[in-house]
Amino acid sequence: MLLAGCSFAPAHVRPPQPVPQTYAASAPGSPSIARIGWHDFFREEQLRALIAAALENNRDIRIASGRIAEARAAWRIQGSALYPQLDAVATGTRARTPADLSMTGQAVTGNQIYGQLSAGWEIDFWGRLRNLNEAARAQYLATEEARRAIATDLIAQIANGYLLEREYEERAVLAVRTIATREESLRIMRRRYEVGSGSKLEMTQAQTLLAQAQTALQALDQDRDVNRNALALLVGRPVDMRPGPLGLAEVAPEVVLPPGLPSELLANRPDIVAAEYSLRAANANIGAARAAFFPNINLTGTFGTASSELDGLFKNGSLSWNFSPTISLPLFNAGRLAANLDVTKARQVIAVADYEKTVQAAFRDVSDALVRRRQLGLQIETTRVMLAALQERARLAQLRFDNGRSAYLEVLDAQRDLFDTEQTLVQLRRAELASAVALYAALGGGFLQNPAFDINAAETGNPAQ
Hints:
- By secondary structure, the protein is α+β, with helices and mostly antiparallel strands.
- The protein has ten helices and four strands, in the order αααββααααββααα.
- It has helices spanning 38-41, 45-57, 59-79, 128-195, 200-235, 262-268, 270-291, 336-402, 408-442, 457-460, and strands at residues 85-97, 108-123, 296-307, 319-328.
- A four-stranded antiparallel beta sheet has the order 1-2-3-4, with no helix packed on it.
- Keywords: Lipoprotein, Membrane, Palmitate, Transmembrane, Transmembrane beta strand.
């Protein structure tokens, strides 16, 4: 009994965190936003509906659910080896013995009929089976975390696609408004040329300005269609994007999104948790490989009845039994067991390095998102100041041209720069909102306050929301 409780697996010790204790671009304080469920983090109803539909229909989620069901079944298969195996066996044999082999000197034809219960059990003195079971369990849990990572990444992609839709929509509105203004300018320039008060150069400049805005609108329409196709693939079905709220560039000042401490990543970020489970599995496999050097004890036996005739199978005196304990000790296998142990140790070294690399990559993702968010905020403020200046410049250039104090080229340059800056401001604001989504995903948010997915989602196709 004491031997049955031993294990040769190394004790699991979480490797030291190979990153700084705080993020350089953020002051510690409030808890990480990763603890906010995605349904509370995203407030736009249309975006929530898209995310919910994607979690239900996305094929990557279904594939991940199938892999979880597969890993859980593999764990159950491995765990079954810990228990005795019991089988009901019925066999019948009819054989002829030649006369020269028969003890009676005559050919004999005989029957043997058995009805038995057969049992076998490997006593896990050294923990080999328990370690293999623990390795299968850790792999199952790692697969569960891998699905959570896929779902978190899916939510981020849906949110980014939705923000791109809003960006294209607002930039298209700006382009349409600009086209209307430039069409009116072209009408005026054409009329001035027709009556002789303007030059053909000024008219062609107005035509160029209009064509530039029309080209920009056509490119936006193309990008929006491509983005909707990408959203449809992510959601898993066609999407019908309704017009959303405009004024993206005039959204209120940024909301503080605390990242918490890097140590929280170890529990919040699913790929880190999955890497730690893989490390646990590697440790357990080392224990199983070490246990293979020790004696293997198997208890096998049968209990039942036997007879030469079927109708005598249950008569008195037909009882039969057999008990065969077996102890096997490996003596020579050309280094196979030692090599297998070396393989498990090498895989454990790989698992440690993979864990540390995953932590470092997660830290970088969060740090990059914090840097982008801070720098984009500064760029937005600078662009807003520049936009106000360009609006005044365009107004003054138009006045100077109307009063005959400058050429139309000055108006052309002012309006072109104003249009480009308006478009840039919308892009920057969308990028800033996307950086918040990137930060949220990098911290591992999305499901800490939500029910876990249904394990059987691969069969039903309906993960829990």
